[in-house]
Each structure stands twice: as C-alpha cells, then as structure tokens.
Amino acid sequence: MTVYKGWNAKIKKDGLEIGYVTEVTVDIDESLEAYYEIKGHFPVRLQEGPYIVTAKLSRAWINTDYLALLQSDTLPEFDLTVSIGSLYTVKLYSCKFTKGAVAIPQDGFLKEDYDIVAKDFGIVS
Q1: pLDDT tens, 49-61?
Q2: Domain 2-124 is found in CATH 2.30.110
C-alpha cells in the first residue's frame, strides 16, 4: 500500500476547478482483488486496474453556484488533484463519496472528514 498526504487539493468537474480540500490522504492499494459497488442487482467495477484508490478529505469547500448549474445540491463524480509538496502531483479520476451522495451545505463548506473512492489515478512529476 502506498500512502500520499497533500494539502490544498483542487476539486474539478469536467476540467473546471469547483472547490478545494485543505488536507487529503490518498491510499493506493495494489491489490489484485476487484472493488465493486452494487447498483441495482449488478456489481459495477469501481477501478480500472488491479488496485484500489481511496482517500480521506478534510475540510472541503465546493462552489455552490456550480452545483446550482447541475440542478443538484450533491456532487456526483469529480476529479481531485493533490499536490505532494513541490515534488509531484497525484490526480484521482472519477471520485465518488463512499457513503453515497453528500448534500453540500448552502455555504459550500464540508466540515466533516469524508472518504472517497477513485476509479483511476495518475502521478505527475
């Protein structure tokens, strides 16, 4: 298992920055077991390769004006860009909250810690 810690991560939707996270911990488990989510009666694979990518977000802010354009007060899938010091960046793609959709408060601030799972990731030096 590889663990990355970063600060001031960017939340992106369709390539547009819509928020940030003060602190992020990313776990990449190179397990050979597939990770599935049950949708209806069928399992849906949540990652592309032989790994499981999870993260914990602390103190996030999301642009509620952008969510209004989606006509929703929840954030479906999003991408997360985590800077690890000045050395490299970890990019998480197609992230979802692990406990279903999270209702975003009117001020846009998520004060609790939230767990997410990502379908794929990339590391840029």
Answers
A1: 567 889 999 999 9
A2: yes
